[in-house]
Specification:
Helices cover 57% and strands 0% of the residues. It is mainly α.
Length: 141
């Protein structure tokens, strides 16, 4: 009789242990997966507009822009603030002005042409344009 109770106890313990631990790997996997549900995956959007404006200011100051342009006064070309007042601060005008920085141009502000800056990358020219367009206090939209 003692043997029978002993065997029944072992069988019972074995069944309890098997039933408790049987789904543990599935539960652990589910818990590990759920941990990621609490976090949003951040998209890499690159530098913010403010960071690009700051980089653009540095680029404008380090290039030959100040030979013809001043932040607030007309020199040979228009002041950067006058350019900002003329153009709405949006993606289309950022690209338009970046293109003018790279290729040069004339006719918009008078007969004196703006010399091309073919050594400036599209990305840097867009940062420069963002800086210029920010000078009237308008935010990009």
């Amino acid at each position: 009789m003692k043997r029978l109770l002993f065997l029944a106890g072992i069988v019972t313990l074995t069944m309890i242990m098997a039933s408790c631990g049987g789904g543990s790997k599935k539960e652990e996997a589910k818990e590990e997966g759920d941990a990621y549900d609490d976090y949003e995956i951040a998209e890499n959007k690159g530098p913010s507009s403010e960071e690009q404006i700051a980089e653009g200011k540095t680029l404008v100051e380090s290039n030959d822009c100040k030979t013809c342009h001043h932040p607030t006064n007309k020199i040979i070309g228009p002041s950067h603030t006058d350019v900002a007042k003329k153009y709405e601060f949006n993606e289309a005008n950022v690209k338009l002005l970046a293109d003018k920085i790279i290729k040069g141009g004339s006719g918009v502000w008078g007969e004196i042409p703006m010399s091309p800056h073919a050594n400036v990358s599209q990305t840097d020219a867009e940062k420069m344009a963002r800086y210029v367009l920010s000078l009237d206090g308008e935010k990009e939209h």
